[in-house]
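Researcher: We plan to redesign the surface later, but first we want a full-length starting point. Tokens attached.
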């Protein structure tokens, strides 16, 4: 299966743990082909509202902001290994049971279905639907419904249908299938506008915090900035270049935004190095060391996973060279910069933390011991009070009172 994403400029969509970066369907950088997909999208919005009104169903939001276009091979394609449908013996599956994710709540989905036809070819692609089981392997639900789809058909999952039901695609025998799945994607996090704004905020706060005296620094600011730093690297730069130089060459709109994100990442990397040096050279707050240490460990863990993912044979053997993963972002390797591995920095911070904690515990013990000695050296005593009284003879007589 091959797929691509088209939508409003700057939008992305997470699909099977891969971030898809949309070709823009409007604006100065949009091609005539993408403009035509935008027109199809407008028509799908109208059809969604029409069918919802006819069925007297709440369609929720149907202002589709992207479409995922899939190109699917038939079962006669010998290089593709098709699995049997697991529960109902329905034949070969091209896309297994699922509900679409990362969408606005209660939003509709509209699907256009095309079969580039050949003479005497069978149009036997089908769409199946079933109630969402409580367990992914649970077959004790109502039986599914399977519907044949012909070239040019469209179908709609209205309102909350996607949240209550699952669907799958049963593979056809001879014709390739092209589907355009129009969705209302959640834009809270998955846009360039979101991550760019977040990165600039983190950069500004990081710089301001580093200008403060160590005693006035807020560890929570550094923790936030480090989280954003990691998010840019793992969720955007690594995801983009996982798909190769060919992916970058095809996504003209994204080339400048991704260069901007890599520059922001480098700036945050420099500030992180400065903070690390402050931790090593001065008596900075232990809470800041903890925050940096936690983030370094998580960042190292994710970098190891990304290296393993890029080395997977699925990418190295089955993908053409121009679409194989590229290890990005790039690390300078300079002496005054942090290593990609971060192990040395983690050991150094851990040692500083242990030393500081031991010193703190020793100081506390000495304080307690000093307090005990002070009490032993100065016991509470009752002082004798002396009073004088005048005797009859006119002299002074000393009287003792307790």
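Model: Full-length starting sequence:
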């Amino acid at each position: 299966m091959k797929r691509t994403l088209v939508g409003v400029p700057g939008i992305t969509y997470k699909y099977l743990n891969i971030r898809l970066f949309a070709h823009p369907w409007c604006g100065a950088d949009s091609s005539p082909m993408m403009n035509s997909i935008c027109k199809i999208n407008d028509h799908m919005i109208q059809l969604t509202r029409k069918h919802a009104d006819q069925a007297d169903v709440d369609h929720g939001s149907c202002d589709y902001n992207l479409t995922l276009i899939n190109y699917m091979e038939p079962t006669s394609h010998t290089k593709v290994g098709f699995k049997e449908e697991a529960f109902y013996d329905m034949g070969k599956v091209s896309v297994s049971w699922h509900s679409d994710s990362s969408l606005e709540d209660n939003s509709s989905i509209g699907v256009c279905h095309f079969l580039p036809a050949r003479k005497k070819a069978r149009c036997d692609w089908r769409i199946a639907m079933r109630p969402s089981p409580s367990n992914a392997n649970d077959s004790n639900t109502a039986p599914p419904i399977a519907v044949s789809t012909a070239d040019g058909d469209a179908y709609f999952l209205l309102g909350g249908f996607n949240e209550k039901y699952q669907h799958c695609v049963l593979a056809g025998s001879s014709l390739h299938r092209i589907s355009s799945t129009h969705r209302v994607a959640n834009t809270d996090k998955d846009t360039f506008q979101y991550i760019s704004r977040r990165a600039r905020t983190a950069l500004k706060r990081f710089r301001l915090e580093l200008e403060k005296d160590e005693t006035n620094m807020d560890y929570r600011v550094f923790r936030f900035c480090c989280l954003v730093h990691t998010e840019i690297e793992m969720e955007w730069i690594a995801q983009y270049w996982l798909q190769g130089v060919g992916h970058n060459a095809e996504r003209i709109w994204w080339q400048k935004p991704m260069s901007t994100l890599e520059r922001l990442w480098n700036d945050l990397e420099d500030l992180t190095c400065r903070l690390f040096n402050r931790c090593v050279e001065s008596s900075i707050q232990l809470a800041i060391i903890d925050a940096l240490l936690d983030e370094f460990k998580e960042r190292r863990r994710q970098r190891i996973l990304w290296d393993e993912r890029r080395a997977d044979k699925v990418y190295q053997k089955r993908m053409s060279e121009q679409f194989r993963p590229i290890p990005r972002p790039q690390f300078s390797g300079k002496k005054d910069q942090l290593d990609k591995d971060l192990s040395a920095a983690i050991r150094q911070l851990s040692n500083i933390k242990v030393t500081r904690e031991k010193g703190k515990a020793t100081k506390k013990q000495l304080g307690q011991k000093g307090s005990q000695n002070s009490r032993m050296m100065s016991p509470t005593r009752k002082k004798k009070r002396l009073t004088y009284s005048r005797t009859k003879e006119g002299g002074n007589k000393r009287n003792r009172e307790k």
